[in-house]
């Protein structure tokens, strides 16, 4: 039996070459994954603050109860933040910003995401004006006691 001639061989695919374009694409994909990972880790990190609860006025105490019932699922206990929403006892909100009107507007109209990466705040329509007033009193007493107001 003859040894097969070199030319009888089924031609193989040409040797693979590391094309610079592929390496470039791979690096692009890896750096995208790294940046996205960092962004995701940052986004998923709960942002919480410590806050002293002062001796509250009766109105503030009523507001505290309402706050911890209606708002703490996102804003954390006493407004100290959670995985789902920002702390309100935070320098972002110092010096009367958002102030009483801003708090009322946030509750009545909801908030489009603008300061943080938590997404939008839905309006909280089932709170009457008196309850909203108590919640504002609570937040402002907290902000004042924590030197943010
Ligand atoms: C479902 C989650 C959620 C609930 C419940 C919620 N909030 Fe918010 N709230 C947010 C998020 C998220 C933001 C931040 C939006 C941004 O600026 O990116 C926010 C922002 C705010 C702001 C700042 C508004 C501004 O102008 O920057 C105030 C004040 C506020 N919330 C008050 C409240 C009060 C009071 C309640 C309860 C009656 C409440 N929130 C309930 C998620 C929530």
From TrEMBL:
PROSITE patterns for the chain:
CYTC
Its name, as the record gives it, is: Cbb3-type cytochrome c oxidase subunit III
- Pfam families attached to this UniProt entry: Cytochrom_C (PF00034)
Transmembrane stretches in the record are 21-41
- Per the database record, which ranges form the Cytochrome c domain? 58-143
What terms describe the molecular function in GO for this protein?
Answer: electron transfer activity; heme binding; metal ion binding
Q: Does the keyword Transit peptide apply?
A: no
Listed A to Z, the keywords are: Electron transport, Heme, Iron, Membrane, Metal-binding, Transmembrane, Transmembrane helix, Transport
Q: In which domain of life is the source organism classified?
A: Bacteria
Instruction: Check the UniProt entry and state the signal peptide residues, or none.
Output: none
Q: Could you tell me which species this protein originates from? A: Varunaivibrio sulfuroxidans
């Amino acid at each position: 039996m003859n040894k097969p001639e070199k030319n009888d061989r089924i031609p193989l695919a040409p040797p693979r070459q590391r094309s610079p374009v592929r390496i470039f694409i791979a690096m692009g994909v890896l750096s995208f994954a790294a940046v996205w990972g960092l962004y995701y880790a940052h986004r998923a990190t709960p942002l919480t603050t410590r806050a002293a609860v002062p001796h509250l006025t009766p109105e503030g105490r009523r507001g505290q109860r309402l706050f911890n019932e209606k708002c703490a699922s996102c804003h954390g206990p006493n407004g100290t933040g959670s995985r789902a929403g920002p702390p309100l006892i935070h320098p972002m909100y110092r010096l009367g910003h958002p102030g009483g009107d801003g708090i009322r507007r946030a509750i009545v109209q909801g908030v489009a995401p603008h300061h943080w990466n938590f997404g939008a705040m839905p309006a909280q329509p089932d709170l009457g004006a008196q309850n909203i007033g108590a919640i504002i009193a609570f937040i402002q007493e907290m902000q004042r006691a924590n030197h943010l107001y």
